[in-house]
């Protein structure tokens, strides 16, 4: 392992010990050591042996996560999330045409409604004109009827 990788390993080991075992001391106890400081110190941590990895693996430590910071499960979940995201986009795209068609129909209905309202207003105005003509006609008929008697 390179120096950078060993320091990264040391940081990951501390995080795993804290998150999964309740602390570095508890993990040290479980692997049969007094402490893990040789592996976790900031300056010049020692390179872990195969035996050390084996002890960690027996404790179900995710070695991939220990070495890289990413667990196998993280990658699997990440891949699944990517697939789900792609599926959502496909569904959205497949329904885009339907959504646009519904929007167009809605626009047509709103436009038709506006036209019907305009026609109703014109008919109402025509009705008023016709009512006034009928009223005038009735008055004329009444007046002629009265004069004729």
Topology:
Layout: H1 3-21, H2 24-30, H3 37-40, H4 50-58, H5 63-68, H6 72-148
Characterise the protein shown here.
The structure is a single chain. The protein is mainly alpha-helical. It has a domain of 68 residues: 434 Repressor (Amino-terminal Domain) (Orthogonal Bundle), CATH 1.10.260. The chain is 82% helix and 0% strand. It is rod-shaped, with a radius of gyration of 42 Å. The termini are far apart. The relative contact order is 0.06. The mean pLDDT is 86.
In short:
This protein is an all-alpha fold. The protein has helices spanning 3-21, 24-30, 37-40, 50-58, 63-68, 72-148. It has a domain at 3-70: 434 Repressor (Amino-terminal Domain) (Orthogonal Bundle), CATH 1.10.260.
